[in-house]
Every structure is written in structure tokens, then in C-alpha cells.
Design goal:
Number of helices: 10
CATH superfamily of the largest domain: Medium-chain alcohol dehydrogenases, catalytic domain
Largest sheet: 7 strands, mixed
Structural class: alpha/beta
Order of helices and strands: EEEHEEEEEHHEHEHEHEHEEHHEHE
Strand content: 25-35%
Low-confidence stretches: none
Shape: globular
């Protein structure tokens, strides 16, 4: 089958950084689905894996962790799906990615495609939706009830990015929280407001000063989706005593990050990585199937909306290189999508 892969780490300007290859088609076994990929989305993780590859692979490594497609075949232990079902998923970082014609994925991390969305609009959602849902509801422990969360607030750092765009909707529409999002450009601030943010602050300024200008004291929760080490003090300055912070961004500085700034307030600091459940085959792995089905229902009911903002054509090596270059700018609003291989 056709696929697009990498052999070694190369800059995105190099035509060999992502190349079209032929790879064997695997047969599904156990709980695996064989999915014909109809659309994919590109995330920062794709760029990070491509850039950080050490040495050279003998066989191409296939990237891609956001897909929408149709089930073509199923393993002998599959119980959640059947051939012909339309599905969405993010996949497993330890297995080949979805930048291919056909793709194997465990059914427990797959959800039904929203019937109201195209494959392209649906492909923009799985990775960011799982990440935002797990960060907000599983890690921070926020209730999915406006009544139970009455008077509570969340600060979302990086509101216009892929994860932030879903997190704003979940925090506002499902949890009923007061949502403060960070954005520095007019277009990104407007996007955050469209999605439901109550207030925008500029992440290039000190958060304490931005809060004071807006008449805010502190927040109950913080979701950090951009530059953890850069915002450590900002988060310490604006989180309530005994508040909770969840970050998804690993630190890049070689020097230790000072988390002692959270001690006086007894702040809970935790991580979210949506690949944890599939990597470790955790007993609750099927929660990703459940949450994708729940968000599909909410999308079809119009409670949530897709975050697809850019379409980059069919999945070819040239188009995928352009998509990686776009993500590398760090200025994306929402998500970019490509159709499947033709």
C-alpha cells in the first residue's frame, strides 16, 4: 500500500524529509481494526517526532496521529465496530502512524465519526479532543456540570491552538466554567471568543498584570498548552491556593524548572499525554473510545464544533511537507487537514 514516511531527521525544506513509499498491508488480529484512511490532520507531535529522529531507519517510519476513515476489516476479537463503520481516532505513538492508505488501530481508542461532519472536518478532532477531555475531566477532575462548577474558572494558556480550541468548548459548554484564554493576535483572540472564551489575556505580558487590568484575582484551574517553563511563574501568580494545573508541553530547557513556586499555595501540578493509555495498555484504555463517541454526539447535536481551519489538499509527500512547515510556524489557529491518499 502507499504511505508517506521518514528515514531520518531532515529539515522541512528538504524534499526527502517526507517521502512516498510502498509498505506491506498488515492483517488485523485481536482487537485491531484495518481502516481505510479518508483524511488526516497534522499535529505538533508529528513535527517533534520527525525532527527528533536519531540515526536512520532501515524501513520507513510512518507518522500521523489523527485520522478519519472507514473500517475495511476487523480482528477476531473486535466487538465495538463492524466493516463499513465510519470512524475517527488518534492512534498509538508506539505503532505506525496513519499517513497511509490503510492503517491498523486498536478499537478501544477509536470512536464513531460524527455523521454531520465530512471526513476532513472529523479528522481535525481526535487527538486534540482526547487531550483536552483527559486534561480537564480526568486529570483536573472538573465535573461535567455547570451547577457543580458554579463560580469556578479556568485559564487556558494557548487558547487558539488545536487543544486549546477544544478545551475552551468543553470547559464552557460542558463544565460551565468561566473561561479565560490567552491569545496575542486579533485573529486568534476573536477565534477564542467565537468558541466561548469569556475573557482574553495576552500571553506576551505578565499574567498578574493582565488579571489586574481585567479585574480578575485568581483561577481555580489552569490548562497549559504552550511553553510550560516560560509560564511557570505566570501560573504560580494566578492560580488559587489549592488550585490545580495540568500541562501537556514538555520542558525544552536543559536547566531544571523551579516548581517550588507552587509549594506555598499547595498547588497540584500534573501531566496529560493522550498516548499514555494506549502505550501502557491501561485497564481504562477504552475510555478514549467512550469519550470520542460522546463528543461525536455533542458535535452532531451542535453543542461542539469542528476546529478545522485549513485544508491542504490530498495526502501527498509535497502537501504533507507544506503542512509540517505550517505547523512549525507556531502560529496555527485550530487545525489543518489533508484528504486521504488518492
Amino acid at each position: 500500500m502507499k504511505a508517506i514516511g521518514i528515514y531520518k531527521s531532515l529539515p522541512v525544506e528538504d524534499p526527502d524529509c517526507l517521502v512516498e513509499v510502498e509498505v506491506p498491508t498488515a492483517e488485523p488480529a485481536g482487537r485491531d481494526l484495518l481502516v481505510r484512511v479518508k483524511a488526516v490532520s497534522v499535529n505538533p507531535v508529528d513535527v517533534k517526532v520527525r525532527r527528533r529522529t536519531a540515526g536512520e531507519y532501515a524501513e520507513p517510519r510512518i507518522l500521523g496521529w489523527d485520522a478519519a476513515g472507514v473500517v475495511q476489516a476487523v480482528g477476531d476479537a473486535v466487538s465495538l465496530f463492524a466493516v463499513g463503520d465510519e470512524v475517527v481516532y488518534a492512534g498509538d505513538l508506539t505503532r505506525p502512524g496513519c499517513n497511509s492508505e490503510l492503517h491498523l488501530v486498536d478499537e478501544r481508542i477509536v470512536g464513531k465519526k460524527p455523521t454531520s461532519l465530512s471526513f476532513e472536518a472529523a479528522a481535525a478532532l481526535p487527538l486534540t479532543t482526547i487531550t483536552a477531555w483527559e486534561a480537564l475531566f480526568d486529570r483536573l477532575g472538573v465535573k461535567r456540570s455547570a451547577t457543580e462548577n458554579s463560580g469556578q474558572s479556568v485559564l487556558i494558556i494557548g487558547g487558539a491552538g488545536g487543544v486549546g480550541s477544544i478545551a475552551i468548548q468543553l470547559a464552557k459548554k460542558l463544565a460551565g466554567l468561566r473561561v479565560i484564554a490567552t491569545a496575542s493576535r486579533t485573529e486568534s483572540a476573536n477565534w477564542c471568543r467565537e468558541l466561548g472564551a469569556d475573557l482574553i489575556i495576552n500571553h506576551h505580558h505578565a499574567f498578574r498584570e493582565e488579571f489586574e487590568r481585567s479585574g480578575i484575582d485568581e483561577v481555580d484551574y489552569i490548562l497549559c498548552f504552550n511553553s510550560t517553563e516560560h509560564h511557570i511563574q505566570n501560573m504560580a501568580d494566578t492560580i488559587k491556593p489549592q488550585g490545580k494545573i495540568c500541562t501537556i508541553v514538555e520542558t525544552e530547557n536543559s536547566q531544571p524548572v523551579n516548581i517550588n513556586v507552587f509549594q506555598r499555595k499547595s498547588v497540584a501540578l500534573m501531566w496529560e499525554l493522550m498516548f499514555t493509555r494506549p502505550i501502557f495498555q491501561t485497564p481504562d484504555m477504552q475510555k478514549q473510545h467512550d469519550l470520542l463517541n460522546e463528543t461525536a454526539r455533542l458535535l452532531d447535536e451542535g453543542v461542539l464544533r469542528t476546529i478545522m481551519t485549513e485544508y491542504h489538499g490530498p495526502l501527498t509527500a509535497a502537501n504533507l511537507r507544506k503542512a509540517h512547515a505550517r505547523v512549525e510556524t507556531g502560529s496555527m489557529i485550530g487545525k489543518l487537514v489533508l484528504s486521504g491518499i488518492v
